[in-house]
Design brief:
The chain is of the alpha+beta class and 130 residues long. The protein contains three helices and eight strands. The strands form two sheets. Strands 2, 3, 4, 5, 6 and 7 form a six-stranded antiparallel β-sheet that branches. It has a two-stranded antiparallel sheet with strand order 1-8. A hairpin with a 5-residue loop joins β5 and β6. The longest helix has 13 residues. It is elongated, with a radius of gyration of 20 Å. The protein starts with a strand and ends in a 12-residue tail after the last helix.
Length: 130
């Protein structure tokens, strides 16, 4: 599984999408590990277009970084965006939140994770058959 986020080409250097891993007990501390840190943080809740819950974390004393933690079943992934100096803060924030809204999980598996996957399509002879 992974989190799919449609990042515009111009933003590839300023948006980080973390791996989809077991849910972190504190989205705020998870995002702090990835650069969303300040003396005072504020959190809010929203959701993706598909209805997955999202915790948005922003610094109260800075407007150049925004973090979002997307909750998917028992998993989670972070999205961290940094604003360029020339970008308008309000316009940038709205664009980042729209990007977060478009995030979605990819449940396809690209590798076998159990014996049944390994044997998919293989006919096994019954025990004791010649």
């Amino acid at each position: 599984m992974k989190l799919i986020v449609p990042i515009p080409e111009a933003w590839k250097a300023v948006v980080l999408v973390t791996a989809l891993t077991a849910a972190h007990p504190s989205p705020r501390s998870f995002l702090a590990l990835h650069g969303v840190s300040a003396q005072r943080l504020r959190s809010s809740r929203t959701e993706t277009a598909e209805g997955w819950p999202v915790t948005v974390v922003e610094a109260e004393d800075r407007d150049d970084v925004l973090g979002a933690y997307v909750h998917i079943l028992d998993y989670g992934a972070g999205i961290v965006a940094r604003r360029g100096a020339a970008e308008d803060a309000a316009t940038w924030r709205a664009a980042v939140l729209e990007l977060v809204r478009q995030a979605r999980p990819d449940f396809q598996q690209h590798e076998a994770v159990c014996l049944a996957d390994q044997l998919d399509g293989v006919r096994l002879a019954p025990r004791g058959a010649p």
